[in-house]
Write a structure and sequence with these properties.
Elements lengths: L2 H9 L6 E3 L9 E15 L2 E16 L5 H13 L6 E7 L4 E13 L5
Parallel strand pairs: 1-2
Antiparallel strand pairs: 2-3, 3-5, 4-5
């Protein structure tokens, strides 16, 4: 399973759209995610064995909506999916009155050489 699939599967139960990079669907509440870093972290015989992906998962919702339960649930869901326990940054975008919660975490996967 890819990193993208792991994130989408982990957050599927929250009933909000989850997509890579940019969401243009017009919903008030949604999740996007991006790779902050993606690199090999273990090698053998001059080939990568293990790849680590540092991820940023962005949860957007109206600033006046209570988000504590969803934030806790998403953090736990990502951890159960194999990510490191996410660090969370939260702020309100003053120009749009949108709450932006960022989960930062890492996952390591075996690297398979193709061909």
């Amino acid at each position: 399973m890819t990193v993208n699939e792991k994130i989408k599967n982990a957050l599927a139960g929250f009933g909000i759209p989850v997509t890579t990079d940019f969401f243009g669907g017009g919903e008030e509440e949604y999740v996007t995610f991006n790779y902050a870093d993606d690199r090999a972290v273990a090698f053998a015989d001059d080939a990568p064995l293990l790849v680590a992906a540092d991820m940023q998962i962005h949860y957007f919702l109206p600033a006046d909506k209570d988000c504590l339960e969803a934030k806790r649930g998403m953090r736990k869901a990502l951890f159960r999916a194999g990510f490191t326990y996410p660090e969370v940054t939260e702020f309100v975008e003053p120009d749009s009155n949108v709450r932006h919660i960022i989960f930062e975490c890492r996952i390591e996967n075996d690297y398979e050489l193709e061909g």
